[in-house]
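Example record

The entry below shows one chain as it appears in the dataset: sequence first, then structure tokens.
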Amino acid sequence: MPIKNNLKERVQQALNEVKPYLEADNGGVELVDCSDKKITIRFLGTCKTCEMQYYTFKAAIEETIKSRVPEIIEIEIVN
């Protein structure tokens, strides 16, 4: 299995850990792109317009991804 696929799978698993909390409020997050050290994500549902988006990103998503996949050093959010 190529390293990139393994990395992408690990990032997806980390996102899957936080998805139930987002989905409880009719929101969500999806992985858009994954490179060697950078990923791109997109908020879905109510998360797209939520005023708490930044805090959700910092406290839940970024922390979870960086603890599970420490080689990821940059996370970009796109619409």
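Notes for this example: The chain has two helices and three strands. Residues 3-23 form the longest helix (21 residues).
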